[in-house]
Design a protein that fits this description.
The chain has two domains: 123 residues, Rossmann fold (3-Layer(aba) Sandwich); 154 residues, Dihydrodipicolinate Reductase, domain 2 (2-Layer Sandwich), CATH 3.30.360.10. It is 35% helix and 25% strand. Strands 8-9-10-7-11-12-13-14 form an eight-stranded mixed β-sheet, with helices on one face. Bound molecules: NADP nicotinamide-adenine-dinucleotide phosphate.
Length: 321
């Protein structure tokens, strides 16, 4: 039996990563598509092979009224996630929700409460957890092979052409670089460090928004402390392009990841200057497969709504300075 999965939003991530990844998922198939525009929905559904007899919709209610639709991937602007996710849950559909899960902590908490009431699966789409090299580092760290962590930092930036993207505007987003990529860095740090260091106890930041003068972060330097002893730095920007880096310094190991923060599952990793071998796996296949397997009952959701909520709380804290 194949689980029927619909997609909401026909934008960049749906087109470039999520719908193509659906072709490689065992036990699920792309079923239908919701867009604001019916023709765009139909083009997308046909291009990516959505298999429902009626596979394109421009109304959320009609899309969700299909009893054969079992699960939904939501990939729309951040401020729309809460309303759409809650509507999916009320219609009995499981949801894989793009990051950040919401733009307020209240919305994130309401999403979580709704899925709990409806006994449905909710996963938050942090694909970096499915990068094979990251998984190897996390396993080594959690098994104590790297020694105690001392410090970590991440740099992930891109250069926006202008400020026309919805992330720069408060009606559809709440953060710019922090929502585009910073939320991934926060999740990566939490996934790696939480089990060995404990919760984030402090968060401070310096935010620059001086070029466009809008309400959202252009460059953000965020420092957090895990437990009582491990500081981390996260830098994001939409003002310049730079090779992405994730570095983790432990008692017995120096881990340097170059170019692993991105969509590809690639890049290079060294541990104490020796290359780490890892497989080039599509991380979006990993995240969607986890969602499908959790619906099937063979595993747990890797990133539950509780982690999504904590991530939103940290974004709010970071952006408030
Ligand atoms: N995990 C990752 O690697 C990753 C990467 C990029 C983005 N994301 C997340 O995925 C979500 C979508 O990001 P994206 O980069 O794909 O954005 P995008 O290219 O702008 O696409 C968003 C889509 O949402 C739909 N939409 C509905 N209402 C809209 C509105 N009022 N304004 C604009 N679009 C609207 C549009 O599809 P229709 O025109 O068909 O309605 C649009 O194409 C965000 O939450 C983002 O954070 C995740």
């Amino acid at each position: 039996m194949s689980i029927n999965v619909g997609i909401i939003g026909t934008g960049r991530i749906s087109h470039m990563q999520l719908a193509p990844a659906m072709q490689h998922i065992e036990g699920a198939r792309l079923w239908s598509v919701l867009s604001r525009d019916n023709r765009r929905a139909a083009e997308f559904a046909n291009l990516h092979g959505a298999t429902a007899p009626v596979n394109a919709y421009a109304s959320l209610a009609s899309f969700l009224a299909d009893p054969s639709l079992e699960a939904v991937i939501i990939a729309t602007p951040d401020a729309l996630h809460a309303r759409q996710a809650i509507a999916c849950a009320r219609a009995g559909k499981h949801v894989l929700l793009e990051k950040p899960m919401a733009t307020t902590a209240e919305d994130a908490a309401e999403i979580n409460e709704t899925f709990k009431q409806e006994l449905l699966k909710l996963g938050i789409a942090y694909h970096l957890r499915w990068h094979d090299g990251h998984r190897k580092i996390a396993a080594m760290l959690h098994e104590g092979m790297l020694g105690k962590p001392r410090y970590a930092r991440a740099l992930w930036t891109w250069e926006a052409e202008d400020n026309s993207n919805w992330r720069a505007h408060p009606e559809l987003g709440r953060w710019w670089g922090l929502a585009g990529v910073g939320t991934h860095c926060i999740d990566l740090m939490r996934w790696m460090l939480l089990p060995v260091c404990g919760e984030v106890t402090r968060c401070r930041s310096v935010i620059d928004s001086s070029t466009y003068g809008g309400p959202h972060d252009e460059t953000a330097c965020v420092s957090m402390q895990f437990g009582d002893s491990v500081p981390v730095d996260i830098t994001t920007s939409v003002m310049f392009s730079a090779p992405s880096r994730f570095e983790l310094y432990c008692e017995e190991a120096m881990v340097v990841c170059e170019g692993t923060l991105g969509p590809s599952g690639g890049g290079t990793i060294t541990i104490n200057n020796a290359p780490l071998d890892f497989e080039l796996r599509n991380p979006y296949v990993g995240e969607i497969q986890n969602f499908i397997d959790a619906i099937s009952g063979t595993t747990r959701i890797a990133v539950p709504g509780s982690e999504g909520l904590r991530n939103v709380e940290l974004l709010l804290e970071a952006a408030s300075d």
